[in-house]
Amino acid sequence: MTVTTERETVSGSPRPTSRRPAGRVDLCVADHVATVTLNDPESGNALTGSLCEELARVWARIRDDDDVRAIVIRAAGRDFSVSETDALGTWPKSHRVWKPLVTAVQGEITGGGLDCLAESEIVLCSDTAMLVGVDTGAGAATLEPSALAGLTRRLPLGTILRLTALGVDPRLSARGAMRLGIVSEVVSGDLLWSRADDVARSIARRPPAAVQAGVRAVWDLTGPVRRVTASGRPGAVP
What we know:
Blueprint: E1 4-10, E2 13-20, E3 25-30, E4 33-38, H1 49-64, E5 70-75, E6 101-105, E7 108-110, H2 113-118, E8 122-126, E9 130-132, E10 134-135, E11 141-142, H3 145-151, H4 157-166, E12 171-173, H5 174-180, E13 185-187, H6 192-204, H7 208-221, E14 226-228, E15 234-236
Parallel strand pairs: 4-5, 5-6, 6-8, 7-9, 8-13
Antiparallel strand pairs: 1-2, 2-3, 3-4, 9-12, 10-11, 14-15
């Protein structure tokens, strides 16, 4: 993987960066924060096979880079990810990346993109973001098994049972998702990326070994993260 070094300006101050040339996924490392940008806005950042392959390579690099202490994932264009495909094995925990993940969502997030929220320590949304589920035709969306597994890490059991029985609004607003506990914070769209960067840099200032051990312990306690094995079947991350 070719990496170039340049300087980037964030919040008015220049800082050294390590940047991977842009494809469908752009990676920039600065101040111990890896910023991953889904960069296929023409498709709505759909989770195609090629985009997921690029993400897998990015997670491997982040996992093996001791300079990275926190991760921001965000998306170029109108929507975070509009995709009907499953995202099993796409997101960082499935690749044994225990560095805290801050996810910044704008526009719509659907399908496998929703699985990213389940693997995030902190979820930020723009005030116009929309979580889109599978409409049952009765005014409520069903919860897919992968979504249920992820929600057990973010929501109280009673809330999950209620959502399982009654469903959720098929177009759940950012503020509605925050009331449920799925979203951590809602901000103005023009502040979304800078707020995500600020949160990640706050994480990066903490002792990395202790933080990552804590993240791994929490995920171990709440059940194994699923990944795709060589056979194409789901398996637990060791």
